[in-house]
Amino acid sequence: MTLSFSLKHAIQNFGREKWINILSIFTIASSLFIITLTFLVVYNIELFTANLPERFTMMVYLKDNLSEEDSRNIVTALQSRRDIRSVNYISKDAALKELKRTLKDASSILDGLGDNPLSPSIELKFNRDMITSSSLKNISETIKAMPGVDDVYYGEKIAEAIHNLKSSLRNIGIILFFTILSGVIFVTYSTVKILFYRKKEEIEILKLLGATTSFIRIPFLIEGGVIGFFGGVLGSVGTLSLSFAVTYRLSTIIPLLKTLVFPSEMFLLLPMIGTFLGILGATIAIGRLRF
Amino acid sequence: MITFTHVSKYYDNQPVLRDITFTLPKGEMAYITGPTGAGKSTLLKLIYHAEKPDEGDIVVGDRQLQSLKTSRISLLRRDIGIVFQDFKLLNNFTIFDNVALALRIRGINEKDIRSVVSETLKRVHLRHKVDSYPQSLSGGEQQRVVIARAFVAEPPIILADEPTGNLDPNTATQIIRLFLDINLRGATILIATHNRELFKYTGKRVLKLDSGNLIGEETG
Question: Which residue of B has its CA nearest to A9?
Fold first, then answer.
């Protein structure tokens, strides 16, 4: 079988059924465009939230009467944890100094307190890859159970809200991604199936003349691939236009949009994904050829 | 080359062919004759495995068709050139591409295809129609394209179902001469026809079918 003939045959077929093919290309392009938008939303939220744990701190308040050695032991124990990036011990005096600095002119109100009423504390920062809101809760409970620890404080509600938002968006993204992906496969499947039925007689003749299944299949697979490829290219053009519009036009009105990231690999990836899905749809549509 | 041993075929429990036994040796040209509905086309279909027998054995070349794997059917058909009664030409292909298809299926390179197809079309007097489409050709011309497609790859067996059905007597004689010529080159040929004039004085073997029964043989 000559590949040039299969290619020629596929291109001829494409031209003969141009309207159904063009319609499929546009459907695939808009589906891939929606997939890309979903991906961009999820991707940018991931980027945004990925830096939050770095800024996130947990305060561990130690018991007031704790000896210096016991305090050191707690600090050492916390330093040995892989999920904690930095441990900063704040003594009673340092805490009072900081409070006075914060209160500035009103610091004189502390003078009447006599002894330093503040507890020594430890400020913890975390490694971004190793924590989630549930793991933060576990960490706080473990630390709270350590002897010498009086209380642990962190923005529990905020952490949980961020985590929930992130996982909901990711889940919606995944569902949307697979739903639309199946849609793209179905579109190519339907297109190739229609073409396949229209060419039923031609296929029967090819079989009678001794054509192998691959000889019959290849032009259809090429056609499916071509539909998917052009759908991908068009989707890519749409996404590129959107990224230009957001970066150069909309961001002048809404400055926050400047922070949005459009990964450039995506523009190359879309035609490849389209081609793959097109061939996959065509393969399913042709199914098993019976002799 | 082609052997039928007690072959029967039924459609909806009605016998179309009954207990057919015959052998067509390699290189022989023969005719199957009989009225419409005698089972001629079905007999040919059994040879190229478009139909399967309900009883009996068929051997084509060295292939036992009962045990032929599906993946081998295309190989069997590449050994057979078929002239279909209803032509089975691809209307969106040019005459050149229709004839070339038989070679492309066999994986022949494009350079050889060009010269072989051109030569074959010359033999059926259709070289000037190389870029035409089947629908612009007369019935007789289409028939000659089908014949050209059947023998362009020089298969060892050629089956023809009413190959002169659409032709005037002169063209029919030319076509039969063409078959005789192909037969002289070594091909085994089996022609199904109801037209007795076609095999008169050919000196070839004629198998007579009637209502699915092989009722005898004669020499044309």
Answer: B93
